[in-house]
Automatic annotation (TrEMBL), chains A, B:
<feature type="active site">
    <location>
        <position position="356"/>
    </location>
</feature>
<dbReference type="GO" id="GO:0004144">
    <property type="term" value="F:diacylglycerol O-acyltransferase activity"/>
</dbReference>
<keyword id="KW-1133">Transmembrane helix</keyword>
<feature type="transmembrane region" description="Helical">
    <location>
        <begin position="273"/>
        <end position="291"/>
    </location>
</feature>
<feature type="transmembrane region" description="Helical">
    <location>
        <begin position="342"/>
        <end position="360"/>
    </location>
</feature>
<keyword id="KW-0012">Acyltransferase</keyword>
<dbReference type="GO" id="GO:0005789">
    <property type="term" value="C:endoplasmic reticulum membrane"/>
</dbReference>
<feature type="transmembrane region" description="Helical">
    <location>
        <begin position="367"/>
        <end position="385"/>
    </location>
</feature>
<comment type="similarity">
    <text>Belongs to the membrane-bound acyltransferase family. Sterol o-acyltransferase subfamily.</text>
</comment>
<keyword id="KW-0256">Endoplasmic reticulum</keyword>
<dbReference type="InterPro" id="IPR004299">
    <property type="entry name" value="MBOAT_fam"/>
</dbReference>
<feature type="transmembrane region" description="Helical">
    <location>
        <begin position="48"/>
        <end position="69"/>
    </location>
</feature>
<dbReference type="GO" id="GO:0019432">
    <property type="term" value="P:triglyceride biosynthetic process"/>
</dbReference>
<feature type="transmembrane region" description="Helical">
    <location>
        <begin position="89"/>
        <end position="110"/>
    </location>
</feature>
<protein>
    <recommendedName>
        <fullName>O-acyltransferase</fullName>
    </recommendedName>
</protein>
<feature type="transmembrane region" description="Helical">
    <location>
        <begin position="152"/>
        <end position="169"/>
    </location>
</feature>
<keyword id="KW-0472">Membrane</keyword>
């Protein structure tokens, strides 16, 4: 060994070359694939995302500057207000949103009664069903009847009611599960069984954790109402502190992104791009902003849908709050009841199609079923892509369906809306 | 333990819920960051690359179709030929390329003489210097003198000569290193030292591996000339077999990509996009095609320059064959001679600037120094970006310099060329 070492040092001195050169004086190539070959397994394209942003900004720079010089950076407040209000003395959307508190409190008080046992399980269920059904019928009836309601105000208030509907459904479901566990526990305790797992979870519920009936407070309810999730749980994971810089960056984006979007003249930029920007604004900037404010820990609002190679993967990953809700409160309970997988999946799409249609048709006061059909068309599309395409081809197909499908559905409604309200398409 | 298990089974039976639901009946959230937050460390955006391709194809689909219907999918052969030939009876570029064999064989025969020792080290060096210098002067003189040489023919033949210049420089350097090691080994053998490391590498050189003087054959030389690398080494890593499907896919791309590029009318698509497509065509499709044909194993023709956060990283990663050559035959030898790092780096940029200018000025017969200045401007730019920007901002700055810098340099030459040849810019 020492001889080898001495030899190497000697050679190193003679040739005055560095170590790697000495080890392989004549070789500098190794067997390897190119990064863009699929065989390389490489997938870090963060830079491409930046390229897209730079290209978007540069290609619209002239337009941005023109608009900013002409109209200033501020969004015209009167124009924004006119989207929500026809008559400044009647604020139907705002009133409707304020009324939603009635339904929230009804759900809370029903749960309190159920917890102490002053009403039976069945009565509680009927109360909840009545409350939840009213939450869908009451706002849609209001939007259809009140003439001073604008389409934007209608979409906004119906959207908020739909979110609350999903939240309160999750609320009653989760609380029922908690009661069932408590009952099972009580039964076992009378039979003098010990229950280490539940006892342990109660034990670790030290200073902040609450256990079942303790969660039925106004504070807990309203935290859930404002939290960026649709699935209720007793102790949400909390982030340790509010990061001011993170909060400010998200706030800046929340203000900047719509400004940029406004600076692009409509229909010059493809509809698809507007959807992408909206996705970033809503699912990244806004939700993270709210979560940071509430110290809500679970920031998984979307997964890597941009890599989706099947339509199903896209729908399961672009909107995680809704997907999580569907899985927890609709798909899994159906499977437990013995419904077959394909049927359950179709039912989820059916429900999703119903809500898409509900959110578009009612505020526009047009029942055209384009949104419903668009959502239901995903089932055969998913089958086709899953059956015949995979890898990058599948991914390209998903992008194509987004780039072409969405604007077509939107244009259908825009076209029909213009025909109804202005008599002609021109 | 059994009690816990029985309890769980009992609960499972009562509640008819699946296992994860039982374990955490009321929790479905965990503490985590959003994927697009830089804190998540996520970087898989392969889908975004597909999005870019789909958007490029779709946004140009109408144009593509129009062009294909009008002109057919075939590139007009007469138009292509006219790029290379002014006079069909005089093929100056082709002749120039055929003559390059003289320089290749001169380098090989000089090395053979050096290996057997019929000429001294110094004589060999003088021969090589004379040979390499001629390789730069002879083609440029020919391009400048022969009037029937077109600019495209000039760029092509000068490009091939430059590549050969770099290859033959590497060839003589590597062979000299091999001789030096052989001499050192011989010296040690006379002193009765054993040399396990070198003996071992000779031992493993069984059926295919060659050792120093055995590599000086025509076959080995021409393999190196055609191989997609600029750095010579004795035993190149070889891929086990030619994958016909891979070969066909690259061939399809080699034909398809310029067809698509032709279908885009010039100046409607940004120059930068043409560079990106050229990059893919040359560094991925063509180089991989040649490598697959020659069973050349090292396919690292580029690294992840799209993620580069500094200008230096970009220049070190977008063109690996040239970068590898500069490092092995220019930068490292300079460092060994005690030159400081910054000076050596600037010298590399200076040499690169010289070759950029050489490849543009001589065929266009215009000495404007735009390419030279463009390359030298990279040094202060690299300093600025490295000093003031990092992360995604640095990446955006690199993209901006590519998107803006390149077209400006190209437009300079186009402008001047038009002014000289057509008298006015219109």
């Amino acid at each position: 060994m020492t001889i080898v070492f001495v030899t190497k040092c000697f050679l190193y001195y003679i040739l005055k070359i560095n170590k790697t050169d000495f080890m392989l004086p004549c070789s500098c190539h190794v067997l390897q694939e190119s990064l863009l070959s699929s065989a390389s397994g490489y997938s870090n394209y963060r830079g491409i995302l930046n390229w897209c942003v730079v290209m978007l900004v540069l290609s619209n720079a002239r337009l941005f500057l023109e608009n900013i010089i002409k109209y200033g950076i501020l969004v015209d407040p009167i124009q924004v207000v006119s989207l929500f209000l026809k008559d400044p003395y009647s604020w139907p959307a705002a009133c409707l949103i304020i009324v939603s508190n009635v339904f929230i409190l009804a759900a809370l008080y029903t749960e309190r009664r159920l917890a102490v046992g002053t009403i039976t399980q069945m009565t509680g269920l009927i109360f909840h069903i009545f409350n939840l059904t009213s939450m869908l019928i009451f706002p849609s009836a209001t939007v259809l009847i009140v003439t001073s309601m604008t389409p934007v105000g209608g979409v906004l208030s119906l959207g908020i009611y739909t979110v609350l509907f999903l939240k309160l459904y999750s609320y009653q479901d989760t609380n029922r599960w908690c009661r069932e566990i408590r009952q099972a526990k009580a039964k076992r305790l009378t039979r003098s069984y010990s229950c280490p797992s539940v006892a342990q979870s109660n034990g670790s519920a030290g200073h902040t954790h609450v256990s079942y009936p303790g969660n039925l407070t106004h504070r807990d309810m309203y935290y859930f109402v404002f939290a960026p999730t649709l699935c209720y749980q007793l102790n949400f994971p909390r982030s340790p502190r509010i990061r001011i810089r993170f909060l400010m960056r998200r706030l800046f984006e929340m203000w900047m992104v719509p400004t940029i979007q406004n600076s692009m003249k409509p229909f010059q930029v493809p509809n698809h791009l507007i959807w992408l920007i909206f996705f970033y604004w809503f699912f990244h900037s806004s939700m993270n902003f709210v979560a940071e404010l509430l110290q809500f820990g679970d920031r998984e609002f979307y997964k890597d849908w941009w890599n989706s190679e099947t339509v199903t993967y896209f729908w399961a990953n672009w909107n995680i709050p809704v997907h999580k809700w569907c899985l927890r409160h609709f798909y899994k309970p159906m499977l437990r009841k013995g419904v077959n997988k394909f049927l359950a999946q179709t039912a989820v799409f059916l429900m999703s199609a119903f809500f898409h249609e509900y959110l578009v048709s009612v505020p526009l006061k047009m029942f055209r079923l384009w949104a419903f059909m668009g959502m239901m068309a995903q089932v055969p599309l998913a089958w086709f892509v899953g059956r015949f395409l995979n890898g990058n081809y599948g991914n390209a197909a998903v992008w194509m369906s987004l780039i072409i499908g969405q604007p077509v559905a939107v244009l259908m409604y825009v076209h029909d809306y213009y025909v109804i309200h202005y008599g002609s398409t021109t």
